[in-house]
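Backbone-to-sequence.
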């Protein structure tokens, strides 16, 4: 790798010889200008306006043009005579936290290597000090005709320099933000959060310049004599947003499809719906089948206890006795036999049978009492014949 700048890092009284190397490279494909009619190449030549002739590079100098258009020559000797400590030195000014650096100030990046074997020890000392303090160094240096601001930090085991623009070179953002007053709803924020979570994180090493790859394929096809066929790509959506919520929802679905998560998401949603339906169906089925559980059988299916069975056996005997004494008892006993033999029905009929038996007993008692009265009257009439005659005679 070829160095583009040589100098020293000034770290207090410590001087570290270094060489500067580009940390990035440009992979863009460059084109030449041609004449479309005959494919002749278009070239730019440096011509002197006064002589109207081409000038060699060694004869070209620099000058400053003032407001009136006058040119003031600046020679190499003038540039060398500038009293700047940063002409060939990277002067460290302070150490700050990396969070204090505004990303808007970040520019080109460079690697700093040692300028000799003697620089290894102080180079390593500065690197380890930056690692342990977790800070970066702010430095000034002169490069490409001007003094610049930079930040030193550690990348792996190498010191890296990021060029910073001066604070007064950062423009204000006044007037750039929309002036219209709008209100963002919580639902829209939730969808935006969902979209951010769906897109997730990415490894920057996996990202590639697809436009550059397409250009390379186009150039390769033209060089081989083939006619490139443009494949239809997705047309970008319009800039006008009609429904922000719908656009966010579609963005979430598109991001899931791009990651291959659409099918998994749909299956998960169907699984959730099926689970809910299954739980509801299970509750309804349980409510319908509750009477059929073996733990809670119906009263009609309960097995009768021995005492109830004994009472049920005695009941027909009483019914038979009652049926002999009273016709009503016979009818009720016959009706009870036809209605069923469950313990509940027998228990309901027992009071009726007892009532019938009592009523039959009362009727029989009344007949016996009536018979006794009649016999007593006849006996009295036989014992007193004179009185009857007297009453008859009178």
């Amino acid at each position: 790798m070829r160095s583009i700048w040589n100098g020293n890092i000034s770290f207090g009284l410590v001087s570290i010889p270094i060489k500067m190397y580009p940390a990035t490279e440009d992979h863009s494909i460059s084109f030449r200008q041609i004449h479309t009619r005959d494919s002749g190449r278009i070239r730019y030549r440096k011509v002197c306006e006064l002589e109207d002739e081409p000038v060699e590079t060694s004869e070209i100098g620099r000058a400053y043009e003032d407001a009136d258009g006058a040119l003031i020559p600046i020679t190499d000797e003038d540039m060398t005579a500038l009293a700047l400590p940063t002409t060939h030195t990277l002067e460290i000014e302070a150490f700050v936290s990396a969070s204090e650096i505004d990303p808007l100030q970040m520019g080109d990046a460079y690697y700093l290597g040692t300028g000799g074997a003697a620089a290894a020890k102080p180079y390593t000392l500065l690197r380890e000090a930056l690692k342990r303090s977790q800070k970066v160094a702010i430095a000034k240096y002169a490069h490409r005709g001007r003094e610049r601001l930079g930040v030193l930090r550690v990348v792996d085991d190498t010191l890296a320099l990021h060029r910073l623009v001066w604070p007064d070179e950062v423009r204000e953002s006044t007037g750039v933000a929309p002036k219209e007053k709008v209100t963002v709803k919580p639902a829209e924020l939730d969808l935006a959060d969902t979209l951010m979570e769906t897109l997730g994180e990415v490894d920057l090493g996996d990202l590639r310049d697809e436009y550059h790859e397409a250009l390379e394929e186009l150039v390769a096809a033209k060089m081989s004599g083939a006619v490139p066929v443009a494949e239809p790509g997705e047309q970008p959506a319009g800039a006008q947003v009609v429904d922000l919520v719908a656009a966010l929802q579609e963005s979430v679905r598109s991001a899931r499809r791009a990651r291959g998560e659409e099918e998994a998401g749909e299956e998960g949603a169907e699984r959730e719906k099926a689970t809910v339906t299954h739980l509801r169906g299970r509750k309804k089925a349980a409510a319908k089948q509750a009477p059929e559980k073996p733990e809670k059988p119906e009263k009609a299916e309960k097995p009768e206890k021995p005492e109830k069975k004994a009472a049920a056996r005695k009941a027909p005997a009483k019914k038979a006795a009652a049926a002999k004494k009273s016709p009503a008892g016979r009818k009720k006993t016959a009706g009870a036999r036809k209605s069923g033999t469950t313990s509940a029905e027998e228990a309901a009929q027992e009071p009726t049978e007892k009532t019938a038996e009592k009523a039959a007993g009362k009727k029989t008692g009344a007949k016996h009492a009536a018979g006794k009265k009649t016999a007593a009257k006849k006996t009295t009439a036989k014992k007193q014949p004179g009185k009857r005659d007297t009453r008859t005679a009178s």
